[in-house]
Design a protein that fits this description.
Length: 182
């Protein structure tokens, strides 16, 4: 599994699946969530409403993930995950690691070969981008070693797509510190 750091807008990435840093309601918000809903078009919100009305009446739990189509996006799927909110006292790093692992599990189940992650929880939810970078990269590497039931993962490329040069630099450094290239 290759890991790449990209500076830019996740909504334009030509990958099979992009991950959304959503909230438990799945009904939209600001930040990357707002950008993804704007770019995917209103059908994305309809699909999220449908999930709430069927599989997820209580919303999506922190650390869990669920997929919808990508509609107008270049990506075929959006995988929605909910990061822990530091401002609400959610400081357990295992919850953040779970966002990455569960998203990859869903991506593998869909047969996605390339997945793009934003810096989940590093915006409104108040986590330090360094911590998100370390945990995210570590979780991806760990997943690459033990995917679905002894099979090789379908996912071959994981991108971390960061909106600012500063955050991209933080992720590049974390990738180097974690052992360089994959
Ligand atoms: N592409 C890539 N990264 C982006 C983009 C984009 N288009 N837009 C923002 N970012 P945040 P969270 C970066 O706040 O902390 C929402 O309202 C941003 O600079 O989007 O998990 C949800 O509905 C930051 O580095 O997500 C939730 O209520 C990173 O994405 C809540 O915010 C994550 O910032 C989730 O908060």
């Amino acid at each position: 599994m290759r890991i790449e750091i990209v500076e830019g807008d996740i909504t334009v990435r030509p990958v099979d699946a992009i991950v959304n840093a959503a909230n438990s309601s799945l009904l939209g918000g600001g930040g990357v969530d707002g950008a993804i809903h704007r770019a995917a078009g209103p059908e994305l919100l309809e699909a999220c409403r449908e999930l709430r009305a069927t599989k997820l009446p209580d919303g999506l739990a922190v650390g869990a993930a669920v997929a919808t189509p990508g509609f107008l996006l270049p990506a075929k799927w959006v995988i929605h995950t909910v990061g822990p909110n530091r401002h609400a006292g959610q400081t357990n790093p295992a919850l953040l690691a779970s966002c990455f692992t569960e998203s990859l599990r869903i991506a593998d189940g869909l047969g996605a070969r390339s997945v793009a992650f934003p810096a989940v929880s590093a915006g409104v939810y108040g986590w330090d981008a360094r911590k998100v970078a370390q945990l995210g990269i570590e979780a991806v590497r760990a997943y690459a070693g033990r995917p679905l039931e002894g099979e090789k993962p379908m996912v071959e490329l994981v991108e971390f797509v960061l909106f600012s040069e500063e955050t991209a630099g933080i992720f590049r450094q974390a990738l180097e510190e974690s052992g360089g290239g994959p």
